[in-house]
Amino acid sequence: MQRKSMHRRIVLAAMVIGWSAAVALALHRLGTYKATPGPATMPPAVWPSEATIKPAGGAATLLVFAHPHCPCTRATLAQLERALARVDGGAACTVLFIRPDGVEPGWERTDISEHASRIPGVVVAVDPEGREARRFNAQTSGHVLLYDRDGRLRFTGGITGLRGHEGANRGYDQLVACLDGQLVDVASQVVFGCPLFDRGAEPQLSASP
Amino acid sequence: MTLADPHQGKLALRTQELFDEHRRAIFVRTDRLFAGLMVLQWLAGIVAALWLSPRTWAGQSSTLHPNVPASIYLGGVIAALPCCLAIKSPGTRTTRHVIAAAQMLFSALLIHLTGGRIETHFHVFGSLAFLAFYRDWPVLITATIVVAVDHLLRGLYWPQSVFGIATASPWRWVEHAGWVLFEDAFLLRACRQGLAEMHSIARQRAELESTNEMVTAQVHERTKALHASEARARAIIDHAADGIVTIDEAGIVLAFNLAAEHMFGHCSGDVVGKNVSLLMPSPQREEHDGYLRRYLATGEQRIIGQCREIFARRSDGKPFPIELHVSEIATEKGLIFTGVVRDLTERKRAEQVAAERSMLAQFAAEVGVALTHGTDLRSMLQHSCEAMVKHLDAAFARIWTLNEETNTLELEGSAGMYTQIDGDDARVPVGESKIGLIAQERKAHLTNAVVSDPQVGNQEWAKKEGMVSFAGYPLMVGNRVVGVMAMFARKPLSELVTDAMASAGDTVALGIERHRAVAALRVSERQANAANVAKSAFLANMSHEIRTPMTVIIGYTEMLAQMAGEKQAPPECMETLEVIRRNGQHLLALINDILDHSKIEAGKLTMSRTRCDFDSVLADVQSTLRVRALEKGLTLSTECIGQIPRRIETDPARLRQILINLLGNAIKFTEKGGVHMTVRMLESDGAPPRLQLDFADTGMGMTPQQAARIFQPFVQGDDSTTRRFGGTGLGLTISKRLAEMLGGDLAVVDTKPGVGTRFRLTIDPGPVGDAEMIDYIPDAVLVSEPAPRAVDWKDRPTPLRVLLAEDGLDNQRLIAGILRRAGADVAIAENGRIAVDKALAAWRDGRAYDAVLMDMQMPEMDGYEATRCLRREGYARPIVALTAHAMIGDREKSLEAGCDDYATKPIDRAHLLHLIDKYARRDAAAVTTA
Fold first, then answer.
1. d(CA B217, CA B233)
2. ipTM over cut 0.95
3. Do the Cβ atoms of B98 and B77 come closer than 8 Å?
């Protein structure tokens, strides 16, 4: 009886340990996934002239490249909305949703794009085939760029701390500081989000942040 | 709890058991709740992942979002073990701690997936609250540790995944853990409170169980007792001497006890479930259901609650008498009826026997009465025959008596269908016919088959009359036949009847014998009575015949003495005359005493109690005996001690007789000194009053032996006494018997030879409540008194006229001589008739006699009748009875006849003259007054 009980206990302990390990591993994997940013790219330090989109005259221009189906982008939009609210009128913001070639019409119109269009002061635009993204060297959805009135790059990167995670983080803080004009140097952060382009179709990385 | 209180100890143990059981139940239940919750959370996570981030995109291509497999895999992994344990091993500590950890991991996952949204932290608090369902605070500790570790690790590596911001402080986890502990504190309190309540509930439940156990035990005990009671009742019913049958409203038998089985001959199984009417004979069998329906419909009772004697039916169909008592009991299923049945077969049989015995006893009694009260033999035997017909159901019965002289049986009694006693069978020679043979053989002849019995006479007649039985008995006294008794009956005679007849035969035989003996006795009695009458007559005649000559002898002796005295005869002559007189007196006293004694012994002496003057009786006796005392030179004194009634209720004549005897004896046996009489009244509470009279003399006294015999008849002090003093020796015997008849006694209380004797007489004075009381006796003390005046009528202006009715010539001469010597004019009547004629004639001529001396025994008309005749005619002058009947009672008889007074023969000259003078004077005074 005692042996049976002991055996049972051992089995039970083994099960608990195994279970704990499995859970810990799974959580770690999930955490790792969430904490893995997109590839670091370096956008043009000055507003590229070949860009179709034009900077706002006399004011800073905030560009957000987003994938209309990326769930992580919801957090970016929420963070953007929060930041714009804090710096009311500090920059002209445009959210560019890429539309790959060959997709069905309206592919780019999702709840995410709808959300973006409801943010005050935000202009939503479609980036056919991601040409503008390529011009600004953006590869991950949620990549935010801030150019000052002079067309100089002030901030590049994501404004979420993890994929799909809202909340205060360094990128957000830096963007807000930039919009407030508190930062002198160009700030850059990693971007957490879905890739804007198919695997193998990414633009050639021209520079590293 | 103490060891001395096992109940409390048991209660505590049970409380703990229940508490543990409850906790385990909560654990199991909560385990299962969480198992479900885990699965739900898992599914919810999957749904949320599919809903919020089903896919992840790269350009225009998309793949399954890692959140989806993460939710499936991670949620599954987290939920798997706790669910498994909750199913396989619910209620164990490991299970609930794993569940606690898993639930917190779900919280962690949720927080993680929502990017550390602060709202999702409420999942942690909610989960803790859910875990508090366990009411097991260590579970909260495990959960809290998991939360803390999660917050710590993720706060370090992915703070935004847990705190929502990437810029959180490294110690932010402490704050979160603190909040969790804060909640833990409340939950811990809630757990403890919950446990306390659980314990209280367990305690209450244990108490309830204990109470239930006690109640159950009591119920068990009561049930056992009830079962035992039912078993006893069942045993009682089964072993009851009476049959007990229970039926329902439809008459169906529900129960049938052993006694009923024996009684009815049915097994219980054959009867139970069937209609009770199978136990009844017709017509009750057909009527029972209708009766039952009518009773149920109308309540009309015929049997319920009553005891009835009816007939029941055995299994073989035979009816038998029973006593039935039915009672009803109302039950939930309706009325049931219980009948208690008692088999009366034996009782009825006994009653029949008793009735037969009673009848036979009546027969015997009637025969006995007939034999003892019958006036003649024929009526006695006739009544005996009638008793046989009446009580033995005889067709006819006859009794013959044996005439031994002719050796013939003579018919003396015949009752029933033949009552004549002078027919063919009136005289039956012994040895002829069945009756004569019975007498000859001295043997009873009994048959219950008359028609086939050749000895019993005319068989044709017997057949025609339907005779069945005959019984003939010789009537025997010892070895002697005195007659024959016989009867015919139209039914068989039982042994009881023949026995009774045999017994009656003996009685009748004795009756016949007794009757014959009585007849002989009556003859003897008649002869004895005749002898008695002759004896009485002889005594009466003897009395008269002796007294009459004695009267003459004594009278003439006195006359001679008087004449001798007058003529101064020589002293020898006087002495001779005195000897003759004294012996004559003695002889007379002897005769009187013998007659009185014989009457007392024969029980023919009766008392005549009347109210009378007690003092007069005493004074009279004194005056009577005073002379005798004076003659002997003795004193005669009386004394009254206290008060005595003047009048008492007694028989004065007998009292006087006793007093004269006692005082006379005292004087006779005293030579010097005197006699002293004291009278007193004895009264004590509760006892009737008594008069006590003591007679003390200074005489010769007696020895104790003499005193002991003194009241025996014919006994005196000694033989010499008789010789010296004379007397019969009957005086004291008679006095004692008389004293007893007067309600008292007579005894010697003191005597001493040479000193004296004291007699004590007590009598019953009767009621004296309102009597006049006196404390003296008239003339009580008379030491000396002049001699009474001699009566002499010679100086009367007209001679005193006396009519003497006396049949004896000697007495005529004697009495007439005495009267004439006293100066009276005497007329003689030889019998009562002449006396009446002479007296009435003189009275009517105005020359009425001054006195009539009436002898009471005379031929033709005796003195009683003559006196009654005179009084009837209105004759009011004095009549003095004169008789030789000196026996007690004669005085009263004379007075009743109308006489004024009474004088006995032989004549006491002085007394006689005194009496005549007294009444003559009284009458003269009455005439003068008139």
1. 23
2. no
3. no
A64 contacts A172 by C-beta, under 8 angstroms: no
Judged by CB atoms closer than 8 Å, whether chains meet at A167 and B154 is answered as: no
Q: Is B74 on the interface with A (CB under 8 A)?
A: yes
What is the distance in angstroms between the Cα of B118 and the nearest Cα belonging to chain A? 10
> In this predicted model, what pLDDT tens digit does every residue of B4-50 receive, in sequence order?
577 788 888 888 988 888 888 899 989 989 999 989 989 988 898 88
Q: Give residue limits of the domains in chain B.
A: 6-209, 240-343, 360-524, 606-774, 800-929
Residues of A with Cβ-Cβ distance to B154 under 8 angstroms: 31
Amino acid at site B492: P
Closest CA relative to residue B137, chosen from B107, B173, B181:
B181
Asked whether the beta carbons of residue B58 and residue A15 sit closer than 8 angstroms, the reply is no
- Our CA-based measurement puts residue B34 at a distance from the nearest CA of chain A, in whole angstroms, of 17
What sign has the CA pseudo-torsion B417, B418, B424, B429? positive
Domain B606-774 has CATH 3.30.565.10: yes
**Contact between B166 and A170 using a beta-carbon 8 Å cutoff:** yes
Whole-angstrom distance, CA of residue B606 vs CA of residue B451: 71
pLDDT of residue B6: 76
Q: Edge-to-edge strand order for the sheet containing A153-157?
A: A122-128, A91-99, A60-66, A143-147, A153-157, A187-188
A8 is written with which tokens? Answer: 């049972």
Which of chain A's residues have a Cβ under 8 Å away from the Cβ of B60?
100-103, 107, 198
Two structure tokens written together for B217: 């035990």
Q: What pLDDT, in 10s, does the model give residues B769-813?
A: 787 888 887 754 333 344 455 677 887 788 889 999 998 888 888
Any chain A CB within 8 A of the CB of B51? no
Q: Give Cα separations from B157 to A188, B81, B161, B169 (angstroms).
A: 21, 27, 9, 12
Indicate the SS3 state at residue B483.
Answer: strand
AA letter at B828: I
Q: What is the tens place of the pLDDT at every residue in A26-61?
A: 888 888 888 889 888 889 999 998 888 888 878 889
Contact assignment for B108 to A27 by CB distance below 8 Å: yes
B800-929 CATH? 3.40.50.2300
Tokens 């005619």 — which residue? B873
The answer to whether B360-524 and B800-929 have equal CATH topology is no
CATH architecture of the domain B360-524 equals 2-Layer Sandwich (3.30)
Cβ-Cβ contacts under 8 Å between A and B: the total is 124
Q: What is the pLDDT of residue A139?
A: 92
Residue at token pair 């002869």: B527
Fold assignment, B240-343? Beta-Lactamase (3.30.450)
